[in-house]
Structures are given as structure tokens and as C-alpha cells.
Amino acid sequence: MGVYLLIETRSSWESPEVDRFLEVATALVGERHQVDLYLVQNGVLNARAGANGPLAPLIAAHAVPIWVDEFSLNSRALSRRDLVDGVDVTGIDQLVELLTRPGCKPIWH
Amino acid sequence: MPDGGRLIFLGVLGAPYESELTTTLLRLVNEAIAQGHRVAVYTCGGATELTLKTLGDKKPANFLERGTPGQLTRYPTTAQLIRELLEMAQGRLQWYVCRPCMEERGALSQIEGVIKHVPPKLRQLLGEADVALLMGVK
Amino acid sequence: MTPRYLAIVERAYRGAVEEQYAHIIAATIAFCRIGCATDLLLRGNAVLYAIREQPEVRLTIGATRVEHLPHYESAIGALLQQGASVHVYETDCQRLGIDPERLISGVAIADLGTVARLIDSHDVVWHW
User: Fold this and answer.
1) Touching check for C96 and chain A: CB below 8 Å?
2) Model-level pTM?
3) Tens of pLDDT along A62-106?
4) Nearest chain C Cα to B19, which residue?
5) How far apart (Å, rounded) are the C-alpha atoms in residues A36 and B63?
6) Structural domains in chain C?
7) What is B108-136 written as a DSSP string?
8) Binding-site residues on chain B for chain A (CB distance < 8 A)
9) A13, CA 20 to 30 Å: which among B26, B85, B90, C45?
10) E strand or H helix that includes residue B69
11) Element (H, E) at B93
12) SS3 A3
């Protein structure tokens, strides 16, 4: 079983490539790998309540912890109350902890 | 590098000002050092401009502050912030600048403390690292 | 007659540490101050720039406290004081769940017809 950290920096509105990347998370889970998704920069916008889309399958499956960077949220005048349920707001310290787990394979998008 | 923590390799390929890649990079390096890890940053492409000596320590004066009384606000450059990280890290941070990318862009004058190197160095760095993250698009 | 400029800002959040004060809204204010009257239309994710009560975010890198990262609310306030108009695109506000009451006072909402009229009523249009 692999340990994956997917880091998404863009919102799905900016490019259809984002949805394709988030589908990779689902596919990796399907192959029984451990996957964490960290949203940073404009990527935090994918976690907005009513974003209607890219994260819904991941949240419904409860298979992928979804982390939302608080600094990125604050920089966009957003807070926890603007987000869907099923995601966790966190800091850059969490990103470093996820990154430094043994065997972690990170992918930045 | 001194022992301790994990050795994190960060390959950085995005140009400044295009996204918040630089902001996230500096946050990530700062936190990794604070958590006791070792970090090797290898900048390519436009990221080689982050450590230009010609950036100086402070950005040019804020054009909107001209004519206002009092001391002008001082805004640190990326070069200054990276210098701070190198100092804070006490040897646990190595900042590499890709020589061909640097030369291609005329980004020849780099701050003290960064290491100008050629891409084959990547093989050694990647072999030594506990984890490798490539950030950005060239 | 003095030309009138329209800045359409769509690609948002680029270079917080690199820019600090020197972001596109500040540049728009500067244009106004030098006599190039410029109005602003925010589209895409940049509509977030017009939200009220934005926190002032700061960073510590090494020993340096970076105090002045972009604060778009104060910049838009300053731009409005220059006499510029500031619009946000309605569809993007809806997409991002921004209710009109969350917007900075003085910012107007533009539908597509208003966008067309803004473009038509300005002599030069910059799409950032």
C-alpha cells in the first residue's frame, strides 16, 4: 500500500485539469492506497460550500482526509463557515507532517 | 548537512509573480526547518530569480506612499527572506540554483549562500532525500 | 476628452510575498493618481478581492515578519476614493457563494450586459 499526498493549488473553475487530478485521488483509493489531499492557494476554493463538484465523491466515500490550508483561506477572506462539511482546516505544520511520513509520495498540482 | 529530522527535497520550477507558489514555498521551508528537518531546495526556470542579488534586501519604495509624511514602509524581498531562512536553518537548508536556467535568464548575480549547480546534481540530491516534492511548472 | 480606462482583473492571488504592496489594485490606484482614470471590473476568483472584513494576513519567514501582504479591501476602498467605479461579476459571485451584503460598500454588481456596457464605455480595456 502506498502513501500519497496530493496537493492541489488551483480551483476547478480555473482549469478542468483540477477535476482530472482529483479523480486521481479516487483512483488511488480504489487501488487501496492511503491518500491525503491538501488544498492550498486557490485550491481551497474547491472546498467551498456549494462548490458542487470536485470534492463531493471524495467526501462521500470518507476515504480521503481533506486538509484545507488556513492561511490560503484567510488570504481569500474565507473561513471555516464557508466550507463544506467533511474537510479539516489546518496549517502548514500539517503539510510538513504529512510530507515527512515514511514512504510518502507527494504530488503537487 | 547536519543530521536530524527527514531530508526533504523541493524542486521549484515556477516563476515568481505567476501564482502563490513562492509564498507557499517559503512557508513550507520555514516550517520544515522549525520542525527540525533538513531541506534541499533546487530552483529551476523562473524560480532562479528568487535569489537575485540585484533584488537587494528591500523592495523599491511603495509608489502609493510617496509624499506621505513619516518613514516609508520597508518591504523585504524574496532574496532577503531566503537569506533569513538560510541563517535560521544553521546548515539544515541548502538552496541550489540551476546554472543553465540561471544563465538562460540572465539571472547571474545570486546572493551569497546559494549554490549554483548543474542538473546532474539532482541525481545525488534525490538519492539522498527521504521525500521529494516538485512544485510548479517550468 | 481624457481617455477612460477599464481594468478587468480575473486571474487572482498571484505573488503575495513577491508583490506585497505592488499588486494590480495598487497599480490601478496609481494610474488614477497620474491622471489615467481607471475603473475596475473583477471577474473569476478575483471577485473575492471585494469581500468586506478581510483579515490582514501576515507571515514570519526566518526572523522577518512580513507585515504587508496584499489587503485588497483597503486597496479597493482607496480606489473608490479616487472616484473610480468598482464592479464584480454577478455569475462569479454566485459561483463563489458571495452574497451582495458581503461586498465592500460602493462595489456594484455587474451582469453580462453591464460588462458589455462597461467595455463599450471605456476607451482602453486591460484584461489581467
Assistant:
1) yes
2) 0.93
3) 889 999 999 999 999 999 999 999 999 999 999 999 999 999 999
4) C14
5) 43
6) 5-127 (3.40.1260.10)
7) --B-TT-EEE-TTHHHHHHHH-SEEEEES
8) 5-6, 8, 19-21, 23-24, 27-28, 30-32, 35, 37, 130-136
9) B26
10) none
11) strand B93-98
12) strand
Write down how long chain B is.
138
Contacts of C69 in chain A (CB under 8 A): 75
Residues of B with Cβ-Cβ distance to A71 under 8 angstroms: 27
Comparing B3 with C127, the larger pLDDT belongs to C127
Residue ranges of domains in chain B = 7-135
User: Can you tell me the distance from the alpha carbon of A26 to that of C109, in angstroms, rounded to the nearest whole number?
Assistant: 38
Q: Quick one: residue B90, left, alpha or beta (phi over 0 = left, psi -120 to 50 = alpha)?
A: left
Q: What is the ipTM of this complex?
A: 0.96
Cell of B27: 512557508
Contact criterion met (CB < 8 Å) for C63 and B75:
no
Confidence of residue C85 (pLDDT cuts 50, 70, 90): very high
**In terms of Cα–Cα distance, which of A10, A103, A88, A91 is closest to A54?**
A10
CATH class of B7-135: alpha beta
Nearest CB among C21, C26, C63 relative to B84 is that of C63
CA A48 to chain centre: 12
pLDDT of B6 higher than 80 = yes
* SS3 track for C68-128: CCCCHHHHHHHHHHCCCCEEEEHHHHHHCCCCHHHECCCCEEECHHHHHHHHHHCCEEEEC
Tell me: the pLDDT tens digits for C42-57?
999 999 999 999 999 9
